[in-house]
Amino acid sequence: MNRPAQIQKSLQDLPVTPHWSDYDAERKNFSWSAVRDQLTGLAGGGLNMAFEAVDRHARGILADKVAMRFVSRANPALDLSYAELARRTNRFANVLQTLGVGKGDRLFVMAGRIPELYVAVLGALKNGTVVTPLFSAFGPEPIATRINLGEGQVLVTTDVLYRRKVKALREKMPSLQHVLLVAEEGGPTQEPDTYDLASLMDRADDSYSCAPTTADDPALLHFTSGTTGTPKGALHVHGAVLAHYATGRYALDLHAQDRYWCTADPGWVTGTSYGILAPLLLGVSSLIDREEFDAQRWYTLLEQEHISVWYTAPTAIRMLMKAGAELAKTHRFEDLRFVASVGEPLNPEAVWWGLDALGLPIHDNWWQTETGGIMIANTPAFAIKPGSMGRPLPGIEAAIVAHLEQDGEPARLRTIDTPDVEGELALKAGWPSMFRGYLNNEARYQKCFSNGWYLTGDLARRDADGYYWFVGRADDVIKSAGHLIGPFEVESALMEHPAVAEAGVIGKPDPVVGEMVKAFVSLKNGFAADDSLRQDILGHARKKLGAAVAPKEIAFLPTLPRTRSGKIMRRLLKARELGLPEGDTSTLEAGA
Ligand code: ATP
Ligand code: MG
């Protein structure tokens, strides 16, 4: 395939006119107050995420439109209209009221992707109650730790999960007053010290007047993925809804006629910001699949559910690549028009694979739990440069910065304006979805800011066209013989080898060069892990990267250790390599 440096777009080729096409003009004319004017707001000047996402539409022409379509292997599909979602979330808010749970109280949800989870999240937001979604696959300890850290008063989960994961540790969660159970095994549930959620919902009124929240009131508490260490709790406010709305338009190009699928679980911030809020804010119909990854099932859903906008993650794309493009080509994705990815660097190989297998390039975008929404993205408005995470969205000012240490003085920041120089990625503080604190760790929060910039902890460079290129996390960068080597560059080169499905690269201490580059690789189906393949991959990497940057060692693994949100845990590869303690593994995917 001919591979130019950019994938150009032309308006004539697009089935839907994108929300924007002039990057510079849109950035220049942008204001957050104009975004606020697109939303309704509460009487008296307040703002509430769930009101904007649900009630606003339930009162208008979208009332009967499908807001969420739930599918699973075991049950027939369930469609909830905006009006029905409004009624159910009202009921849930009334349930909380009856229990004496109000504004500022804390609620945790832990369930598979079932309707009750979505109703609880949105209903609690309407009630002003602060919500934390947890992965249902977490073990008992990580659940208890997070509920204790967040001083959760309410937990919504299922009877099965409660018995398996919560009951034995309930005494160790003193803040937890109310446990509301969804009956998975036929209700009502009879567990002592719990409520049967369906019975409470049946008795609750389906009208509710939204709590008087303001843009600065806390809304969501999200734990980070734990890729680099113990997960941190990042607090977000209702005002973040402005960013969800704006970025849903700019980065995902969501239009009301779209059928949208975000594959992220709400246990991870993507599953909330873009799996729940952004599509609802834009009046879109979302698909929610309860099942775990399965290449055949995913292709079938994309095709049969007529998905037009798809938001997924590199780990899923790599798994689809592993399954082979042939499988994709047995399907026709006639409605698909826009594909985006987040969570990890998207190797150029994956962007090209999208073009081959799906007929569309994949738009990488970058953000963090802390940023609450997409900050830098490949968008419909400009050409994609495969391997780049794109350009800052309107309303977002990004920079590459260097830290200047001076004798006895605190470190100062300098922005690097020369193109193609590596440094830390920073964002001008103050966008609406910026986190407002790390739970119980004000000192760490303060350390993230300097001279009005938020420091992301990621290293990147910006090219002369203003595109940002991810280099690696500050913690993962390898220092070898005086070079700074970003793992992403090495991993991307390895991914271009036809046998490589996934690659994770670490620096291994070495007496001569400081750190030497070691790669861990998992192979595509049909390739055998033997020494001749190892030599072949090493040779390929040397040719692409040069001897100074290419790995010196390659180890084959069946799969790489990943977080539940799908990120390669390089710190774990390193700890295992060096025989060191593994640290916090609460977010490690099972079997990794
Ligand atoms: P922790 O902070 O607990 O170590 P985490 O940083 O992985 O976990 P998240 O907030 O889920 O938790 O992930 C954000 C990070 O993911 C970013 O800081 C960045 O390192 C990485 N990331 C996200 N999107 C991209 C992308 N498009 N390209 C490169 N890296 C990305
Ligand atoms: Mg992080």
- Structural class of the secondary elements? alpha/beta
Strand order of the largest sheet: 2-1-11-10-12-13-14-15-16
- Strand content is 15-25%
The radius of gyration over CA amounts to 24 Å
How far is the first residue's CA from the last residue's CA? 34 Å
Bound ligand species:
adenosine-5'-triphosphate, magnesium ion
> Which geometry do the CA atoms define?
globular
- Helix tally equals 18
| Helical coverage, percent range | 25-40%
Profile the largest sheet.
9 strands, mixed
Number of strands: 28
Mean pLDDT: 94
| Unreliable residue stretches | none
Would you mind describing this structure in some detail?
The protein has 592 residues and is of the alpha/beta class. The chain contains 18 helices and 28 strands. The strands form six sheets. The protein has a nine-stranded mixed β-sheet. Strands 17, 18, 19, 21, 22 and 23 form a six-stranded antiparallel β-sheet that branches. A five-stranded parallel β-sheet has the order 4-3-5-6-7. The longest helix has 17 residues, at 82-98. The relative contact order is 0.10. The model has no long low-confidence stretch (mean pLDDT 94). Adenosine-5'-triphosphate binds at residues 224-229, 231-232, 342-346, 364-366, 368-369, 389, 456, 458, 470, 473, 565, 567.
